[in-house]
Structures are given as C-alpha cells and as structure tokens.
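Morning F.,

Quick status update on the modeling queue. The single chain you submitted on Monday has been processed. Sequence for confirmation:
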Amino acid sequence: MGPVARFREGLVLGPLRSQFDGDESLLAWAHAKVPGVRAPAVLVVTDQRCLLHIASPSVADTHTQLGSLVRFDLDRATPETVGVRLNGDGEEVMAELSLTTRARSRAAGRVLSALVRQNVGAPETFDPSKTSPLPPVPRGVKDHARRVWVTVVGVLVLLVSLAFASPFLPGPGALTAVAGIAILAREYEWARDVHVWANRQAERFVAWARTAWSRRSHDDADAGSVDERDGGSEGEGSSLGEGYGRAG
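Structure tokens below.
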C-alpha cells in the first residue's frame, strides 16, 4: 500500500480502527450512502465482519458478522448507483454505492468481491474475477459540464468560508467549508475522503455547542431562581420588621 492510500485510509477509517479486534484485518472499503441519512457513509469489509459506518456521532454504525451474513443482492434503480442489500440472520442492511467514475466502480467491486471471497452469497450476474464487476457509467458532455459546475461552485463556497473563518474556534467558517467539501465530493475522490472526516468533526462540534448552550441556559435559570428566592426572603424580612415596629 502506497503513502497516498495509507493517508486516505487513515483519514476515512481512523476512528474505526479502534473498534477492530487484535487479529482483525481490513479487506476493502468504499464510500457509500444510506437511504434517508444525510451524512456520508463508508462500507467496510474485514475478515470478520461487514461494517456500515456513518460519519455522524448521532447515528450508530451497523456491524454484521460474516458468519451471520447470508448473501447480498444488487438493485440498479438508477444508472449512476447500485443498491446493495445485505441479508443476515433476521436483519437487512441497505447501502448505495456510486458508479459515476472508474475509481468508484472499482472500489464498489472490491468491497463486494471481498464479501464473495468470505463465502457470502452473491447474485449470479456478479463476477468477482473481473477488475470492475460493476462497470462505471459512461460519461458524456453533460457529465463533464456538471464536473466543471461542481468545481466552480465548490471552490466558491470554500472561498466564502474563508471570510467566516475564525483562528480560534470552528464556527461558521468551518461549517461553510464542510458544505463546500460536500459539493466537491460529488466529483472528486479526495473530497469524499475529506467530507467523511470533516462531517464527523463538524457534527461533534455542533453536538458540543448544543450541550454547552443547554448547560449554560440551565445554569442561568438556576441562578435566576436563586435570586428570586433571595429577593423573596429579604422582602419577608423587611415586612416582618415593619410589623414589629408598628407593634412596638
């Protein structure tokens, strides 16, 4: 594995390595999308399990042991993606793999071929011996024009993020940068890698900010109730003093 591949793997799969067992080996991985989930995802195959990782702390990963994984089925609902349905013992996991470029097609083929080599059933039309068992979608003039449009818009959003950038905290500038990376990820593999990493960091920051704001609001409310109780006690003391004065 070359230095670029190691860097990509560390960027995308860094937090997942800690979940692997000591003797567990990585076989293949590919960027994926989970229907109904906004955050990017990664489909990972090891010699022990199939892992669907979603780059969001608010959504749990799906672990399926290879021993309980019966087969996978493919659904070509659209020409640009293939739906993968993993069928296990009593559970079903859905993911979508992109076929818009040769690199994405080969990554999808490596993941599914790794499942076949681990004795997971596959459709008869899937041939793991091919370099690209799932051929990429031919790109025409509209596709190249879209690539140019995505590049221009993504770079502009990144430039706008510099205007909001803060040297101290990952505020609006960082969140805007994540949006720019998400746009570029439609066409560029390096942007897909960065998008997974950046989305994890951004959602962690948002979760931390919400917790801090909620804690601060709770502390302010507690302080206000204490002040009200202290004010009420002083008012009762003064009224009692006035009563004693009149009685005297």
